Amino acid sequence: NTRLYYLDNLKVFLIFLVIVHHVGQAYGSTGGAWFYSYPGERIKELSNFFGFNASFFMGLFFFISGYFFPSSFDRHGAHKFMRDKLLRFGLPLIFISLLVTPILSYVKYVHYTKKISFSDFYIQHWLTYAPGKERTDYMFNFGHLWFVEHLLIYAFLYAAIRTLLKKLPTSLSVSPNQYVRLPAIFLFILALGFFTHLIRNFGGFPIDCWIFLLNFIQMEPAHLPQYLSLFRLGVLAYRR
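Predicted structure:
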């Protein structure tokens, strides 16, 4: 009875954009590391769609996710909140890391490199690690569930901050019904553009440059300011 159908519709639309975006990468200018790469001429015009799409669609997913964190924590408390997130996010991460991503990588390896049995590939490329080996070739590569991995990390941070705030003598919570005014939105846009520019042009992390922070957190630093800030705004939006 309390289902928010407009958010369901919005998420379906965003999922459609995700699918189209990733299908396009097989044929566009940014599909070099994709599971399938079209051998013919690349469609450079798709880069315009990729740039526009990436400027908001995953950030909006984080915004929606952040919106539901406060109510879940309020209902369940820290322990049940984290247990729920570990089940919702942790089990899919284990499943895709140990089974789905190795299968996809195996198909790609056999197609582009050499024939090998899946068991040998799994042992050599997934269960073992050697210095100099590609980081994408062994366990705890969550592939396209990087988004879920980030949400699990954000859940830990959110629970820790909420628990800490409860122990402080004064409340730092935001007053309800305190609406965000237009100048604040423009300042946010300028700040997001500024920090994104610094990371991409001075930090050495252009679009499609992925790293493994602490050797297991998959992230694309070029879009990290968008994801973190919109998740935080989603949390604030629930109170406001």
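Summary: The mean pLDDT is 87.
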